[in-house]
Specification:
about 350 residues; mainly beta; Thrombin, subunit H; Phage tail protein beta-alpha-beta fold; seven-stranded antiparallel beta sheet
Length: about 350
């Protein structure tokens, strides 16, 4: 709690100290409309929200008593005249992007990187690189880049920047294949190279197949389907819980990825890409991490939708010689106003 007496100066991170200091005649409380800026070429912008009820507040070096509820919102580190809760800030990281074992752009010169990961589908990577960094300043169009990048393995490594004392924790790795290249120009008239890639699991979407498997286990079926794909390109870990042989399994007009996904679902097996390898079966023991639903790092959406489709379902149980049929119920939609 803030008082009329100035508190001792806190210990600031070695790589970030505020420009203003105790005794400089100005503070970083919200009434001064001033946020502390940070040195050493880095800025840490953080938002802190708290409520003060009937607490004394320092205003431009003078003590002012407040009555009622006052929301305080301000940026980055506060000067010692204000009390505050722990500050949550963006994590400072170092990113390395390599293609075919070499840096994709000299000096890691890229302007944007988006990695979209979903549990039951392929991971997508979008990367924006200045055109001159890859093709050279004299190139008029894509000449050498397609042969160097298209179809090549790409890896992304994200590790904490240990120059900041608050950045602790493990790093992150992603491996995939570059599948698409394009050019673009932004509002600053700078030409860019747009690189699109997917996780190595996208190799399993290579046409449709028709085949059958008799008296084989899940692991044997997965191994046979994945056999044509080199393990150094599509790393896999097959540890299914279901070990009994399956009497009869059919892959009919399905891609290998769709077939394996359906088969894993039917037998309640985990089947996913973890960023570096394809996984079948439960995660390894000890790999679980606590997930805190704090409303900041997670979102949730629940909704209903109206589709202009009428579906009829039919199924036959050959073991019990039973037929099942169902039809979706229609819903009347009022006419549009004239």
């Amino acid at each position: 709690m803030a008082t009329g007496r100035r508190r001792p100066s806190p210990i600031w991170p070695t790589s970030a100290r505020p420009l203003s200091s105790p005794g400089s005649g100005c503070c970083a409380c919200p009434n001064c409309a001033m946020a502390a800026r940070l040195l050493v070429g880095r800025r840490i912008a953080c938002r802190l929200e708290r409520e003060a009820i009937g607490r004394p507040e320092r205003k431009c070096g003078k003590k002012t008593e407040t009555n009622g509820k006052i929301p305080l919102s301000f940026l980055t580190y506060l000067l010692p005249c204000c009390s505050f809760h722990p500050v949550f800030m963006a994590r400072q990281v170092l990113v390395t992007v390599q293609c075919a074992g070499k840096a994709l752009a000299p000096g890691q010169d890229f302007t944007a990187l988006v990695l979209h990961q979903t549990l039951f589908d392929h991971h997508a990577l979008a990367l924006t690189v200045p055109f001159d960094s890859v093709e050279g300043s004299q190139a008029a169009f894509l000449t050498k880049t397609p042969g160097q990048l298209l179809g090549q393995p790409v890896s992304v490594t994200i590790v904490p920047d240990h120059a900041f004392e608050l950045d602790k924790g493990p790093g992150f790795n992603f491996k995939g294949v570059i599948t698409e290249l394009g050019t673009s120009k932004d509002s600053d008239l700078q030409s860019n190279l747009a690189v699109q890639g997917y996780s190595s699991s996208c190799l399993l979407v290579s046409g449709v197949q028709k085949r059958t498997f008799r008296q084989q286990t899940l692991q044997a079926i997965f191994s046979q389907v994945l056999a044509p794909y080199p393990e150094n390109l599509l790393t896999r870990q097959l540890r299914p819980r279901h070990a009994a042989p399956l009497p009869y399994v059919v892959q009919y007009q399905e891609s290998n990825f769709a077939f394996l996904s359906r088969l894993a679902t039917e037998y309640a097996e985990w089947f996913y890409y973890d960023g570096t390898s394809l996984q079948l079966g439960p995660p390894a023991a000890g790999a679980e991490q606590d997930f805190v639903a704090d409303g900041v790092h997670n979102t949730f959406h629940l909704g209903l939708a109206l589709n202009a489709t009428k579906v009829k379902f039919y199924e036959y149980n050959y073991q019990q010689h039973q037929h099942y049929a169902a039809t979706t119920q229609g819903q009347a939609v009022p006419a549009l106003p004239a």
